[in-house]
Specification:
six-stranded antiparallel beta sheet; alpha+beta
C-alpha cells in the first residue's frame, strides 16, 4: 500500500487502513437486518448463552476485514469447503494468471466505492502477524470474528460471567462434539427421569399421563379489608387457542376454575363447564399496581400488602400439556396438546417435589445462598425487595430448585472439565426461563424470559416451564443444550451467510475454526499493562447510561460460581464487581462526569497498548451532539484522532434512558503524537469544504440515506478537528471538543438545503416509523428533531405518532397559526395539511387558496405529498374548483 495518512508535525507516517477510506454500509445493513432476526442460523455460537447488548457478528466481521487487511503479502484467501486450497492472489484462473489480486482489492477501497474488499467477505481469509485486543469484550463477538481471520486475540472484561461466556465461545472451535454428547448422556441417565417425573399430568383423553410443558401460577393476597383471598389476575387469559382455533382464546373461569375456550376474551363470555358469565378482560389487578377485591371492592397497593402480610401465596391453576400416547395414536392436535385446569393430582405432584426438596439437604449446596444485593436495578428501577424477594432462591419455586440442583450435581459429577463447563453453560442458560419471575406470552403461546425487558420485573401470574423438557416447550435443558451443540459445531467449521442478487447465500464450512490463538482476562480494563503491543483494538465500549451489566449478570453469576469458584479467579465473591464498572449508576452515586473521566482513562490505556501505527475501531450508540462531544473530547485528550465514522444498523435491545439513541456508529481512531495550532476561522473553512466534498462524493456514488451521509460527513469533519485538538483558538480562547462538535453540526446543516418538509416526507415514506427515523433522517439537514417536535410533526405522548393532516395535535398547532395567535407564519406544509383537513370536514377551502396565492413551491410540495401518501386530494384542493368551492 502506498497511500499514507498523517500530515501533522511529529506524527509518524502510517499505512491508511481500508476502514479509514471506506466501509460497505449498504452491504452490512443488508445482512444485519436478516441476522438480527435469525441469530441462531447465522451465528449459533452467540446463542449458546445470554449476554446483553451483543453486537451482530456481521458487523464485527466486516470491521475485522477492513481493519486487519493492510499488507497483501500477509493475506491468504481460501475457498470455503476446499481445505488447504488457497486462491493465492485471488482470481487465479487455470493458467495461473490473475487479473484481480488482494493488493488491487485493498487499493480500490475508497469512500465512493468501498466494496472491492467486500468480495472477500464470504471467503476464508487469513492474516499473518496480527494481534488484537478487546478491553471490553462482553459477549466476545469481536474476538470470535477476529480469530476467524487467524489473528491472535486477547480479551478482557470486568464481569466474570462475560469472561466465562467468551471463554467457552473461543474454546468451542477445538471442542470434540462427541465428548460433549457423551457427557450429556451421562447427565441424562443420572437425572432426566428424576426431573421429568414431576412434570406429568393426567391426560384428559385416557387413563395415562401426559407431559407438562408449562404450569400456570397466580399470586394471592388476603384483602386488607374483608380478608377475602384475592388472586392477582390482571385478566383471565390463559393462552390463545393455538390448538383449536387461532381466533379464539383459552380463558380461566373465575367461578369454577375451568379452562374454557371463548370467541373474544375482551367481551362477555360463558364458561362451558359451569355456565358462569364473565368478562375475561376484567381481572383483579388495576393500573398503578393495586388489587381490586372482587368481594368488597377494596383497592390496595400490592407491594404494601405483600410487605404487611410477609409475602404472598402461590396457587397452581392451569397447565399446558403434550401427550405422546395420543399423538402416536393419531389423535388430532387439539387432543394431544392443550390447556387444562390444575387437578388435585397436579397439586399433589408439586407437594411431592416440595417434600423431596426439603429432605434433600445435600442438594441445597447446589443452589445459591447469596442475598440479592441492593442496586439500581433491584432497589430503584423496579424494587424486587418490595415484592417479597430477598435471596436469589426466592425467584424459584421448590420444584424448580429441586430440578436445577439435581442438574447442577449431575454436571458436577462429569469428570472432563471442558464438557462440564459447557453443560454448566446450558444450566445457566435455562435460568432465563426456569424461574418464577417470568410470565406467559398469551399471543405467541410461549414462556417469556426473565430479561425480556433487561430488568427484574416480578409477574403476578408466573409461568413454570418443564426444566428438563418435553417434546415441545421453550427454554428447557434439552433445547438449550441443542443450542450449545449448534454453537460448538459452528465454531469448528463456521459458515458465512451473505446476500447475492437479493438472495441469501451460505458458504461451505471454513477450515479456519474459531479461537485458534486466544487469551482472555477478567479485570478492570484500566489495569491492562500492555505497551506498544497490539496492532488493533476492536471493541464495543460501555455507553454512559447503558444497562447495569454487573447487577443483571449476578443472576447467572451466583449459579455459575457454585462450580467455578475453585476453578477460576473472579468467582469467589458474593456478587460481580460494581464500583469499577465504567457506567453511570445513580445507586452508587456514579455520574455522567465520572463516566466520561473513567472512559478517558480506559482510552489512555488503549493508546498505550497500541503500536504507534495501530488502530482503534469501536461501535458507539449514537445519540446527540452532547454525547458526540464527550466522546471526541475523551479520545482526543489522550492522543487519538478520529479518522472515520460510519452508521450501521442497530440490532440490540438498548437499555438507555431518553429518546435520542437511535443507531450505531463505527468509530475509527488512530494514535496521534501531537496536534497543530489553528484558528477557528481557518479550521471552519477546512471543515466546511470537507463536509461539502464528502457529501458530494457520497451523493454521486453511493445509495445512502441523508442520515447515513450526515454521519460520514461528521467523521470527516472530526478528522479535520482531531489534528488540532486542544489548540483551536477563537477570540483568544481555546475551544473544547464539545464546542467544536456543536459548530460542526451547524456547518453540516448549512451545507445542506434539505429542510423540515423534506424530512417529514421521508418519514411518511418510512415503514414502521419511529423516533429513531426522525433522529437519523435529520442528520445532515437543516432540520432538527426538536424543530419537528415543536411543529407537532411527531409526538410521543402516547407512543410514537406522526403529525399527519388528521392528527389532533398537529391540527391544533396549525389552527393556532391560522387564527393568528401563534405569532408564526404558516409553512407550505401547514397550509396543505390545513386545506386537507378542511376538505375532509366539508368546509370551504377556496377562500384560503386565493388568500395564500398558490405558487410553484406550494404546488410542488402538494405533488410530493400526493405521491408519498397516495392521496391526490393535496393537489386537487389547489386546482380543481369543483372540489375547492364548497
Amino acid at each position: 500500500m502506498s497511500e499514507q495518512s498523517g500530515s501533522s508535525q511529529g506524527r509518524q507516517e502510517r499505512t491508511e487502513l481500508p476502514i479509514e477510506r471506506g466501509f460497505p454500509i449498504e452491504r452490512v445493513n443488508e445482512i444485519a437486518e436478516k441476522e438480527g432476526r435469525a441469530k441462531m442460523y447465522y451465528r449459533p455460537i452467540y446463542t449458546m448463552h445470554k449476554w446483553w447488548a451483543r453486537r451482530l457478528g456481521c458487523v464485527f466481521r466486516t470491521i475485522s476485514l477492513y481493519t486487519l487487511l493492510d499488507d497483501p503479502e500477509k493475506v491468504s484467501v481460501f475457498e470455503p469447503g476446499h481445505e488447504g486450497s488457497t486462491l493465492a492472489s485471488y482470481g487465479d484462473d487455470a493458467d495461473g494468471e490473475s487479473d484481480l489480486d488482494v493488493a488491487s482489492l485493498l487499493e480500490r477501497v475508497d469512500m465512493s466505492d468501498p466494496e472491492s474488499l467486500w468480495e472477500l467477505y464470504p471467503k476464508d481469509v487469513r492474516v499473518e502477524d496480527k494481534k488484537i485486543l478487546d478491553p471490553f469484550m462482553g459477549g466476545g463477538t469481536s474476538l470470535v470474528e477476529a480469530s476467524r481471520f487467524g489473528a491472535e486475540v486477547v480479551g478482557n472484561d470486568l464481569n466474570p460471567v462475560a469472561w466465562f461466556v467468551t471463554k467457552k465461545e473461543l474454546e468451542a472451535g477445538r471442542t470434540d462434539v462427541e465428548e460433549l454428547e457423551e457427557a450429556f448422556e451421562q447427565v441424562k441417565e443420572d437425572v432426566a427421569d428424576e426431573i421429568t417425573q414431576y412434570y406429568k399430568t393426567p391426560c384428559p383423553n385416557g387413563n395415562h399421563d401426559a407431559d407438562v410443558m408449562y404450569n400456570f401460577w397466580v399470586k394471592e393476597l388476603d384483602c386488607v379489608s374483608c380478608g377475602h383471598t384475592v388472586p392477582l389476575f390482571k385478566d383471565y387469559r390463559v393462552a390463545k387457542g393455538r390448538y383449536e382455533n387461532d381466533d379464539k382464546y383459552n380463558v380461566l373461569c373465575p367461578d369454577c376454575g375451568a379452562v374454557t375456550l371463548v370467541d373474544d376474551w375482551q367481551s362477555e363470555s360463558i364458561c362451558d363447564d359451569c355456565g358462569h358469565g364473565f368478562v375475561p378482560k376484567e381481572g383483579n389487578v388495576s393500573r398503578g399496581g393495586k388489587y381490586n377485591c372482587p368481594d368488597c371492592g377494596q383497592k390496595y397497593a400490592i407491594t404494601d400488602a405483600i410487605q404487611e402480610q410477609g409475602g404472598y401465596d402461590l396457587r397452581l391453576y392451569a397447565l399446558e400439556y403434550y401427550c405422546k400416547d395420543c399423538d402416536d395414536a393419531g389423535e388430532p392436535k387439539a387432543a394431544h396438546k392443550g390447556y387444562k385446569r390444575a387437578e388435585e393430582a397436579d397439586q399433589e405432584l408439586y407437594r411431592e417435589a416440595e417434600r423431596e426438596w426439603e429432605e434433600s439437604e445435600g442438594l441445597h449446596d447446589y443452589v445459591p445462598d447469596e442475598e440479592i444485593p441492593p442496586g439500581h436495578m433491584t432497589s430503584e428501577r423496579n424494587p424486587v425487595f418490595d415484592h417479597g424477594y430477598s435471596n436469589w432462591t426466592d425467584m424459584y419455586n421448590e420444584r424448580q430448585l429441586l430440578s436445577l440442583s439435581k442438574l447442577m450435581k449431575a454436571v458436577d459429577d462429569v469428570e472432563d472439565k471442558n464438557s462440564q463447563e459447557f453443560l454448566l453453560m446450558a444450566v445457566s442458560g435455562i435460568l432465563r426461563t426456569n424461574n418464577m419471575m417470568v410470565g406467559y406470552d398469551y399471543s405467541y403461546n410461549k414462556i417469556v424470559n426473565i430479561f425480556k425487558s433487561n430488568s427484574f420485573d416480578p409477574p403476578q401470574s408466573p409461568c413454570e416451564g418443564n426444566v428438563w423438557g418435553a417434546k415441545f416447550g421453550r427454554g428447557t435443558f434439552e433445547s438449550i443444550w441443542d443450542l450449545v451443540i449448534s454453537g460448538v459445531e459452528y465454531a469448528s467449521a463456521p459458515t458465512e451467510r451473505y446476500v447475492e442478487n437479493s438472495e441469501t447465500m451460505e458458504t461451505e464450512p471454513f477450515s479456519q475454526p474459531v479461537g485458534d490463538n486466544f487469551e482472555i482476562h477478567q479485570g478492570d480494563a484500566r489495569s491492562i499493562s500492555a505497551e506498544n503491543e497490539y496492532d488493533a483494538v476492536i471493541t464495543d465500549p460501555p455507553y454512559y447510561d447503558n444497562i447495569m451489566y454487573s447487577e443483571v449478570a449476578d443472576y447467572f453469576y451466583v449459579w455459575q460460581k457454585i462450580l467455578l469458584e475453585d476453578e477460576h479467579p473472579g468467582f469467589d465473591k458474593d456478587k460481580t464487581p460494581r464500583a469499577e464498572s465504567i457506567v453511570t449508576n445513580p445507586y452508587l452515586g456514579k455520574t455522567a462526569d465520572d463516566f466520561e473521566s473513567e472512559l478517558g482513562e480506559a482510552f489512555a490505556v488503549i493508546k498505550r497498548a497500541l503500536k504507534d501505527d495501530g488502530s482503534l475501531t469501536f461501535t458507539y450508540h449514537h445519540s446527540d451532539s452532547e454525547s458526540w462531544g464527550e466522546l471526541l473530547e475523551s479520545l482526543c485528550n489522550v492522543g487519538f484522532e478520529v479518522t472515520a465514522t460510519y452508521p450501521i444498523t442497530a440490532d440490540i435491545n438498548k437499555f438507555i434512558g431518553g429518546e435520542a439513541v437511535s443507531f450505531d456508529i463505527v468509530v475509527v481512531a488512530r494514535p496521534l503524537d501531537d496536534t497543530e495550532p489553528a484558528s477557528w476561522k481557518s479550521l471552519r473553512r477546512d471543515i466546511y469544504r470537507t463536509a461539502r466534498r464528502t457529501r458530494q462524493q457520497l451523493e454521486e456514488n453511493r445509495d445512502l440515506s441523508r442520515g447515513d451521509i450526515g454521519v460520514m460527513e461528521m467523521g470527516a469533519c472530526f478528522r479535520e478537528y482531531s489534528k488540532h485538538h486542544g489548540k483551536v483558538q477563537r477570540d483568544g480562547e481555546i475551544m473544547s471538543a464539545k464546542e467544536v462538535v456543536q459548530e460542526i453540526y451547524g456547518i453540516i446543516q448549512e451545507a445542506s438545503d434539505i429542510g423540515v418538509e423534506d424530512v417529514f416526507i421521508d418519514l411518511l415514506d418510512t415503514a414502521n416509523v419511529s423516533y429513531d427515523d426522525v433522529n437519523k433522517l435529520c442528520r445532515g439537514t437543516n432540520a432538527t428533531p426538536e424543530e419537528l417536535k415543536e411543529m407537532r410533526l411527531y409526538n410521543q405522548d402516547d407512543g410514537f405518532e406522526l403529525g399527519t393532516w388528521d392528527n389532533e395535535k398537529r391540527q391544533a398547532y396549525i389552527q393556532e397559526r391560522v387564527n393568528g395567535d401563534g405569532g408564526d407564519h404558516l409553512s407550505n406544509l401547514d397550509k396543505l395539511q390545513f386545506l386537507r383537513y378542511r376538505y375532509e370536514k366539508g368546509q370551504a377551502v377556496q377562500n384560503y387558496v386565493e388568500k395564500w396565492d398558490v405558487d410553484d413551491d406550494l404546488r410542488e410540495l402538494a405533488g410530493r405529498l400526493a405521491d408519498v401518501t397516495g392521496d391526490d386530494t393535496y393537489t386537487r384542493v389547489l386546482g380543481d374548483r369543483d372540489i375547492t368551492s364548497y
